[in-house]
Amino acid sequence: MVKEFPLPGGAGDRRWFRAVDDVSLTVARGESLGLVGESGSGKSTLARMVLGLTRPSAGRISFDGADLAGLDRAGTRRLRSRSQLIYQNPYGSLDPRLSIHDIVAEPLHGFRIGERASRRDRVRALLDQVGLDPGIDQRRPAELSGGQRQRVAIARALAPAPDLLVCDEPVSALDVSIQAQILDLLTGLRDELGVGLLFISHDLAVIRQVADRVGVMRAGRLVELGTADDVFERPRHAYTRTLLDAIPGRGFAGTRTTAQKGPR
């Protein structure tokens, strides 16, 4: 895949900025693919193309064998119910005017899933699934902690029963102790539901805890792709080695989290 953006006042070859440069990857059902790189490396642009929110300048994106570019309006709608985004900032991604129930139920209304009673039951079941007391459903986001808000965001993403979750820096705005709980929750949901995870982060230690395979991006290019063990223990590319060497303490290299349900 390639994604280029026009540059104001550019001329010749400098008229375009190539944010994603000839990247190829796949995410299987039930797999966690971690995508790591510094800011501006093209991770989030790639995620937007995977979700169908941005069209590639060149290349092809397929979901379950269907080419996204060839989908009609109904097909695009179905695709968007099957691939959901978990945003970086739980303080900005939830509408403060809505109750927790209404926030989690948004995709159910948007994709016309169920009726009023079944939606209410679905919301309460989702809150329980992400480790929250269903009794908070009438509260507002301001009444919850950052970790609780991110659990609500995860519940909302799960509402239409997607096959793929795109997690764009989902723990970077949280305290370290809460990060571990959210990472455990996501890996547990992957194992329980068989959902695929495209997990984007600048933090290699976070990626190590959740990813089966790891891709390393630099300046729009995928410079390394392999199993988590290979990338962390036997990196091939000099840039990957530089990223690993910059992490204080390398004891995490052989460890991964064990999924468990976090406290309510």
From TrEMBL:
Keywords: ATP-binding, Nucleotide-binding, Transport
Domain (ABC transporter): residue spans on this chain: 2-244
Cross-referenced Gene3D superfamilies: P-loop containing nucleotide triphosphate hydrolases
Protein origin, superkingdom: Bacteria
GO terms, molecular function: ATP binding; ATP hydrolysis activity
Extent of the signal sequence: none
InterPro entries xref list: AAA+_ATPase (IPR003593), ABC_transp_ATP-bind (IPR050319), ABC_transporter-like_ATP-bd (IPR003439), ABC_transporter-like_CS (IPR017871), Oligopep_ABC_C (IPR013563), P-loop_NTPase (IPR027417)
Pfam families for the chain: ABC_tran, oligo_HPY
GO biological process terms, semicolon-separated: peptide transport; transmembrane transport
Family the entry assigns: Belongs to the ABC transporter superfamily.
PANTHER family reported for this sequence: D,D-DIPEPTIDE TRANSPORT ATP-BINDING PROTEIN DDPF-RELATED, TRANSPORT ATP-BINDING PROTEIN
Protein name, as recorded: ABC transporter domain-containing protein
Source organism (scientific name): Polymorphospora rubra
UniProt lineage: Bacteria, Bacillati, Actinomycetota, Actinomycetes, Micromonosporales
